[in-house]
Design a protein that fits this description.
The chain has 209 residues and is of the alpha/beta class. The chain is built from 9 helices and 5 strands. It has one domain.
């Protein structure tokens, strides 16, 4: 867990691994111990709405998601929706803590995706999706797998640019929502956590100036 002060607010950023069931206990412990003024999550507003209304229906996986699940299962049980988020929402509801999505909403994400991902990259992505199951990933740890998966699957120029923009958006939203709150706890998907923290650090000199 990393800490930074923004707008007079202590922001704690905790990387989470989406899908891994064991992450739920870590999330619950972090919230109950820190008792934050608000919890931020690297989800879109629409995703949170879907999480709130989820009734246990089976979630169909595409080629990429299925490979991610199979790789992650080397390190424990895997579930969807991601337990790191479902548990965070559950605890926040129990403790009456605001649960705030900070990722791009679906319209913004879709617009930027269409603008950044060119035709050639889409063709490569479609071709690669059928071969991704044959890829070798780093299985030294769950963290190593997730980061290696992200590097190999999301390594195209357009998607990398989009993910950087997501990190910038999440950092800015996190800074904005921190105003007037003593402590904010943010659960950020591991792949984007370093970038989000770096963007938060970049915002600090602007405040002091």
């Amino acid at each position: 867990m990393r800490e930074i002060e923004i707008n007079g607010t202590k922001v704690l950023l905790m990387p989470v691994i989406k899908g891994l069931v064991s992450e739920a206990a870590k999330v619950r412990e972090a919230i109950t111990e820190q008792r934050p003024s608000a919890v931020a999550v690297s989800m879109a507003r629409e995703e949170v709405e879907g999480l709130r209304s989820y009734e246990g229906d089976e979630i169909e996986l595409g080629d990429f998601e299925d490979v991610y699940k199979q790789g992650l299962e080397q390190f424990g049980e895997v579930q969807l929706p991601p337990p790191c988020y479902t548990e965070a929402l559950k605890v926040c509801t129990e403790m009456d803590i605001p649960f705030v999505p900070i990722d791009m909403n679906e319209d913004l994400f879709s617009d930027r995706y269409c603008e950044l991902i060119g035709g050639i990259e889409l063709i490569k992505e479609g071709f690669f999706s059928h071969r991704v199951a044959k890829k070798k990933f780093n299985l030294d740890s769950a963290e190593a797998f997730v980061l290696d998966y992200d590097k190999k699957v999301n390594g195209g120029r357009g998607i990398m640019t989009l993910n950087i923009e997501r990190e910038e958006h999440m950092a800015k939203t996190l800074a904005d929502m921190s105003v007037g709150r003593p402590l904010v706890l943010a659960f950020i998907e591991l792949e984007r956590s370093e970038g989000v923290f770096r963007e938060l650090e970049a915002l600090v000199p602007e405040q002091d100036g």
